[in-house]
Amino acid sequence: MPERYDSVDESIMDAALDRILQVGIRRASLEDIARRAGINRITIHRRFAGKDNLVEAVLERETRRMLTEVTAIATTASGVEAQLEETILHVLLQTRIHRLVTQLLRVAPEEALGFYTVQGERLVAIGIDYIVGMLTHAQAAGLVDRYDPRPVAELVARLAHSLMLTPGGGSVDFTDPELARAFVRHSIVPLMKHGIATTTEEVTDDDDRAHPHQASGKAT
């Protein structure tokens, strides 16, 4: 799907979102959506090639809107650690309490799990690309270490997607704001600042500790 839409596309997606929030995805017919948008069904097919693509476009648009909010929130924090903390907290929170999640679980719980499992691949991909871009920018500015940002971005994006439907059950209850903040501050922020140590780095570090004189170039 294109990332830029015209006013007709936007009105179709608005109508689709409203109807999905009312009755769920399966019961949101193209006839209802077209009537709400003030167009005919053929126009929806011409622009989105059917209901599945339309639903995917709606979900992607809502995800990108959330990430735009994240960027705005992050800029209000002072210092890279605080910005990373607020960014990840907002992502984790919104993927769990966004209206498209909570309302779909309320009006059509039987289809919510399947929907977010099927559509999850695209959501995770969008999240990964966003975090990679954020970390790449921070690296260029010298705010975080130089490392391959994609593995870190994938871990964080997959964590956010997992918490969307299962916020509890582990050692950290992410429904508790203070516990969630502590986890992000002490686990996620250091990960995003320094990256994941490679096997070579780990072996080198262990070897340096075992042979400190050799590592420093001094004779024993």
UniProtKB/TrEMBL annotation:
The keyword Transferase does not apply. Residues 200-220 are annotated as: Disordered. Residues 29-48 bind DNA. The keyword DNA-binding applies. InterPro entries: Homeodomain-like_sf, HTH-type_TetR-like_transc_reg, HTH_TetR. Residues 6-66 form the HTH tetR-type domain. It comes from the Bacteria. It holds the Pfam family TetR_N. Keywords: DNA-binding. Signal peptide: none annotated. This is TetR/AcrR family transcriptional regulator.
